[in-house]
Amino acid sequence: MLVVCSKFEDTKHIKQNTYKKRGIEMPAIPKKKKSMSGSINILGYKERDYHIAHCLEFDLVSQGATRKEARDNLASLIFSYLRFAIENNIEQFTYHPAPKIYWG
């Protein structure tokens, strides 16, 4: 299992609303009265020359040259995914689990 922490490298429309955590730039969650909490399962494995990080609850996948890069890329993707859901009031549609084959 990988621990999620993010390196935010997304486009300029989100870049302006970021903050730093442990020296890593992360997207800021909108200051609404909504919040989401909980834990997620991350499956990490190596495929050819890449490390893969797979968030099982949302079926989001990223890759990187190292485990850390794959994990950081996935964290950025998860933050962007949830931020979009919160901003557009569609949190109820965010849970989209990976196929059962990945759940071990």
From TrEMBL:
InterPro entries: TTHA1013/TTHA0281-like
Gene3D superfamilies membership: 3.30.160.250
Protein's recorded name: Uncharacterized protein
Organism classification: unclassified sequences, metagenomes, ecological metagenomes
